[in-house]
Amino acid sequence: MEFSILVFIFGLVFGSFLNVLILRLPERKSVFYPPSSCGSCNNKLKFYHNIPIISWLVLGGKCGFCKSKISIQYPLIELIVGFIFLYCIDINSLENLAYSICLALSFSLLFALCIIDVRYLAVPSFTLMLTLIFALIYTHSISSFKDALIFAGGAYLLKSLIESIMNAKAKSDDECIQVMGEADIEIMALIGALLGIKLGFVAIFLGAVVSLPVFMYLRIKGKENIQVPFIPFLSIGLALVWFFPSVGQFCLDYVQ
Known about the structure:
mainly alpha; globular
């Protein structure tokens, strides 16, 4: 019980760090310096202003200096990452502790990448690679590494083929259509590493299905050329299969 509480607290603290990462990395700023400050009055926050969740609740969701509102995003991300750590880390097996920590880090960073992708339609390459590396460390098997390469290679070839066909008549680079970003390919590699070939395809299929309402809405509104972040949809597919194994198994049984 005590260890579970420690794991949850560590997850909250890491979630607090992810809030900084989400805010600063896309702007190419250091995540360590300068210290956190209020976005409205620029006053440097005291250490007791940065206690995960508690500070936000005690301050009533407002800055301790200028009383401007602090987004609920901050405690919400901390809470979600806390539960990710609690779910991923095997508290009953110290032998697998290091590997399960890597899984928790991978899922938490992926969650942060989803938010960054929604906001900026681009993700930091280093963080993306770190997410994949932690996933590969968790699986620590040659087969998962091969599955990651198969998914990445297959996604890249499919992307190249579709774009070549769709852009055959394009007269300039501005008219070219991009089916998926390079980051999406690395996320598919991560899915392949964690789930394997069969369940990996299920996760990608589910992610595509979840994305359909968004693309249909944009088409109805005549906004087909708007770029849509796809990492969140791929992550939803991964989460559905990973956290709810019966969903993935049902899909496989239905196909077979």
